[in-house]
Amino acid sequence: MAKAKKDNGHYISRQEEKAIAKYNRKMTKELEAKKHRKNVSEDTYLTTMKDPKNIVEFDDLHTYFFTDAGTVKSVDGVTFSVPANSTVGVVGESGCGKSVTSLSLMQLVQAPQGQIVKGSIRYNDGEKCYDIAKMPSEAMRQIRGKDIAMIFQEPMTSLNPVFTIGYQLDEVTLLHNPGATKEEAKKKSIEMLTQVGIARPEGVYDNYPHELSGGMRQRVMIAMALVCNPKLIIADEPTTALDVTIQAQILDLLRSVREKIKGSIMLITHDLGVVAEMADFVVVMYAGRIIEMGTAKEIFLTPKHPYTVGLMKSKPVVSKKVDRLYSIPGQVPNPINMPQTCYFKDRCDRCHTACEGPYPSVRKFSDTHQVSCYLYDDTNTKDNDSMEVAK
Amino acid sequence: MSETCLSVQNLKKYFTIGTDFLGRPTQYLKAVDDVSFDIPQGTTMGLVGESGCGKTTIGRTILRLHDLTDGKVIFNGQDLSKLSRRKLRNLRPQIQIIFQDPYSSLSPRLTVGAIIGEAVSAHKIVPKSELKEYVLQVMKDCGLQTHYYERYPHEFSGGQRQRICIARAIALRPRFIVCDEPVSALDVSIQAQIINLLKDLQDKYGYTYLFISHDLSVVEHISDTVGVMYLGNMVEYGSKEDIFSNPLHPYTKALFSAVPMPDPTVKMQRIILQGDLPSPANPPKGCKFCTRCPECMEICKTDAPEFKEMTPGHKVACHLYK
């Protein structure tokens, strides 16, 4: 039995277990202490943006989870930026690190086991530029919910069931504008509820979350995110729990909201259709790394990475006939023992000898379009796959 | 088209939501209200609709996991709703179900072999001595490696678990399988694997599926006939080609236009429905869709439309079509 367990890679001996626990304690203690520093001067976390037009820049971000079975590299060197007035879509399957990337930006990664280990997240608030990865959590509280707001996946569980909608909305105003009175907060909340298309805002103001439908709750969540006029809204799978007709309403709302607040949206989803419709830029993630990124047109019309191509071919599309769906064989590798090679190697149908080498570096096709794959080492190679999908 | 495998006639399922002080029901929730359809042997019928429209209730009522309020479910010439428990038990192996959530539908205390083999031995599908061999064969059919036999469900990912659920269902050599959102909880690349598996098994063994899903693209891919449901009623029914290339009911049109296309160059003419699904406990009078319908007329608010055949095999319930 023990041998069988060893084979499947889950087995760790008592000794190894101890060593892992010791290492985890050391690492998390160190990083937690850094986060909870008091009275830190601003200079320690001020930086400059690479491009002042961006709102957020992720630079070589590493977020690890120190678990009992070993270190899970959820986000392993992610670099991309969110320009002002645009929507960036982050796509990938579950467990690829797309949610953890956004949680890192909010400093909401499950602590103490989840920690930003390396890299920086630069945030530009118009005058100053902060490095969120270095910020103590006290200072972060000023930004979170005010300049950067988040809409979560489950509208059912992200509202507090024991408080009225109005109370929860007022809280945001009262917290971030210390001078505001209760009346002002109520006025603001009702204005926000009207803005997200709720028909009887005064009624909903006094309702409890369970009295509303899923679509209405998601609207309330969006209203809550909008209260402080954020510069960036992170929408983490905002429509996954909703029906298609309601999804269409919510996407429409998000689009109009973006124009109103003149901010950016970072849209995290696994639905390629939603991304195609909403996003200007697309980032495709696989096993904690970015494998391809570019503008929506580049990604959908000329996808380069075999994974992106496979993902697009495996999703049936209404009014497009295929006899048999393409399916990417196998599964995502075990996140604790990632191979040294390309993570997609074992599932790739265009794998060749060069793929045995270390993780492929980034290759650029245009200013925006870049891929990590050995296929394009020789730039003469024609991309047959992308043609196939484009037709 | 060959003989009919399953025929559902005027199926009604009401849940009691209010009783008077003697315990007599006073208020009903009409989860399924007068739905009829036939599924020919060896084909797949897709059932689409928003959450709360009664798709799952239909699936479960067919299996008699819920007892129906009125109507008939005829399988193999027998009315399932009138069978005694014992007779139904004998029929059970022939009608199987695959549930939506592969995480909660497998017992965490049984090994994969035991999960798949349990019903096989209970229904004496194969002699005891051949049980293990038979289970291994079924596992191979479903793309599971044979050394998984001794493992427990928690060791598997969602896609593998769904394969175990499928293996459990087909191990009984069923004729008819209800697939209740079998791919909704899975990632896109795994979805494709499971859909292909279901299709391969159908080609190999001639199963009949009732495929319940809210994902229209998946339903289009797998189904031969499609039924569209809204608030407990079937609003449109027809062959896949009819429904997808020529949708008649305004709800079907809106539903199709709401599906996002993975192509940034296509700008869809979207019909955005206003408002939410009304509460099924208190549905609107007349046509149930009248509160959200973009083409609502006066008659819709008072009279419920009939379910009429427009062209052979294509039925619709709407006042727009006389």
UniProtKB/TrEMBL annotation, chain A:
Cellular component annotations (GO), alphabetically ordered: plasma membrane
Do you know which SUPFAM superfamilies this protein is assigned to?
P-loop containing nucleoside triphosphate hydrolases
Top-level lineage group: Bacteria
Look up keyword Metal-binding and say if it applies.
no
Keywords attached to this entry? ATP-binding, Cell membrane, Membrane, Nucleotide-binding, Transport
Q: From the Swiss-Prot or TrEMBL record, state where the protein is found.
A: Cell membrane
Q: Which positions fall inside the ABC transporter domain?
A: 56-312
KW Phosphoprotein (keyword) present: no
Q: How does it sit in the membrane?
A: Peripheral membrane protein
Spell out the SMART domains in the cross-references. Answer: AAA (SM00382)
Q: Name one Pfam family in it.
A: ABC_tran
- The regions listed as transmembrane in this protein's record are none
Name the InterPro entries for this protein.
Answer: AAA+_ATPase, ABC_Ni/Peptide_Import, ABC_transporter-like_ATP-bd, ABC_transporter-like_CS, Oligopep_ABC_C, P-loop_NTPase
Which BP terms in the Gene Ontology apply to this protein? peptide transport
Please list the GO terms describing molecular function: ATP binding; ATP hydrolysis activity
Which PANTHER family does UniProt cross-reference here? DIPEPTIDE TRANSPORT ATP-BINDING PROTEIN DPPD, OLIGOPEPTIDE TRANSPORT ATP-BINDING PROTEIN APPD
Family assignment?
Belongs to the ABC transporter superfamily.
What is this protein's name? Answer: Peptide/nickel transport system ATP-binding protein
Q: What is the species listed in this Swiss-Prot or TrEMBL entry? A: Anaerocolumna aminovalerica
Ranked from the top, the taxonomy reads: Bacteria, Bacillati, Bacillota, Clostridia, Lachnospirales
From TrEMBL, chain B:
Keywords for the protein's UniProt record, in alphabetical order = ATP-binding, Nucleotide-binding, Transport
- Record's CDD domains? ABC_NikE_OppD_transporters (cd03257)
Q: Which domain of life is it from?
A: Bacteria
* PROSITE patterns reported for this sequence: ABC_TRANSPORTER_1, ABC_TRANSPORTER_2
A GO BP annotation: transmembrane transport
Q: Give any GO molecular function from the UniProt entry.
A: ATP hydrolysis activity
* InterPro entries, alphabetized: AAA+_ATPase, ABC_transp_ATP-bind, ABC_transporter-like_ATP-bd, ABC_transporter-like_CS, Oligopep_ABC_C, P-loop_NTPase
The record's annotation in Gene3D superfamilies points to: P-loop containing nucleotide triphosphate hydrolases
ABC transporter domain sequence ranges: 6-256
NCBIfam families given in the database record: oligo_HPY (TIGR01727)
Family named by the database record? Belongs to the ABC transporter superfamily.
Q: What is this protein called?
A: Peptide/nickel transport system ATP-binding protein
Species: Anaerocolumna aminovalerica
